[in-house]
Amino acid sequence: MSDRRKWTVVLVPPKNQPAKSYMLPGWAFRAVAWTGGISLLLVGWAVVVLFTPWGTPGARIVAAENAALHADIAAIEERFKVLDDTLRSIASREEQMKMLAGLPTEVSAVRDSTAIGAPDALVASASILDLPTAPIEATALTAAPTRRRPFLGRLGWSARPDIEGMISRASNLANGLRDVSDTLERNFQRFANTPSIMPTAGWLSSQFTSSRFHPILHENRPHEGIDVTAPTGTPIVAPAAGSVIFAGNDKGYGLVVEIDHGNGIRTRFAHCSRLAVRAGQQVTRNQLIAAVGSTGLSTAPHLHYEIHVNGKPVDPITFVLSDAPQ
User: Fold this and answer.
1) What backbone torsions phi and psi does residue 49 show, to the nearest 5 degrees?
2) Measured distance CA(285)–CA(5) in Å, rounded
3) CB 169 within 8 A of CB 123
4) pTM of the full predicted structure?
5) DSSP code for 13
6) 294: closest CA among 211, 242, 214, 231?
7) CA distance 198 to 98
């Protein structure tokens, strides 16, 4: 049964002009209504497709990847900030170690002039946000297949931290710490091999001098060491690490131990009653090497102690860091 209803459409123009009315049959009115509804749906669909990331399955995938990438970038940025803080902390410690090691700490051309405590070639106080930046590339920051590229422009990220710069900083810092470590090791080794303690306990009975009357030979002659009077058997220890180059009888010196400490330094211990080391043996500071005696040209038990630097005798007292013998 056909619809015989009619619809009247009244149009009221502005400014009090007379209204106009149109009579539409039912089928025409329904056609206009359907056409308008479909048009609105098409416009809405077009808006979704063109202006939102949810128009197609591919766009939804890309949008999800971008969201995950945004979170990953935020996490990476935080990690870089932590790394930057760590590098600055290590740089400050390296500067202190350089000072202790006696290494130069002057500012270099690539060092931030406002950074106190940064090593050479290291901008120690630079914030990660102040580091040089480079354009970001979609293919470098996404793990998605190459057929899909996230819209990075929507992330608000146009630059990334200078990773190469931070790697360079870490490399320079590692080199600096290696130099400090090597220098400290050499200094420690040198100190370990430098005579710095008295080799025995006793009383200083004769000093280092260029002329002294010899009690047995009855003539003036240089005394190239010091004499420490102590009871027979009193332990004699090595004043520093070194290698025993002689252990035996040496004419007027009696039983003698000679140690080469390196760096041109040698020590001699004479008039011993017995020896506790042999030639070629390595010794360390405070290691027992002999005992006080009165062998050779000696009038009473004592230790005759000499230090030679580059073949020349020097006063052993100048090397002693602890208290002089009482």
Assistant:
1) -70, -40
2) 121
3) yes
4) 0.49
5) -
6) 231
7) 31
Identify which of 233, 232, 227, 281 has the alpha carbon closest to the alpha carbon of residue 258: 281
Give the end-to-end CA distance of the chain in Å, rounded to a whole number.
Answer: 137
Task: In whole angstroms, give the CA distance from residue 142 to residue 31.
Answer: 50
Q: Which residue has the tokens 């790697």?
A: 167
pLDDT digits (tens, 9 = 90+) for 171-226: 777 777 777 777 777 777 788 899 989 999 999 988 898 666 556 555 667 888 99
pLDDT in tens, 40-97: 888 887 776 666 665 566 666 777 788 888 888 888 888 777 777 777 777 777 776 7
Whole-angstrom Cα distance, residue 248 to residue 279?
Answer: 9
Q: Strand 235-237 and strand 288-292: pairing? A: antiparallel
CB neighbourhood size of 240 (10 A): 24
What is the CA 241 to chain-centroid distance, rounded? 31
* Residue 238 buriedness (CB in 10 A; 0-12 / 13-18 / 19+): buried
8-state DSSP, 322: S
Cα 58 to Cα 150: distance, rounded to the nearest angstrom: 10
Place of tokens 């009357």: 213
Diameter of the chain measured on Cα atoms: 157
37 Cβ contact list (under 8 Å, min separation 6): none
The number of CA neighbours under 13 Å toward the Cβ of 144 is 20
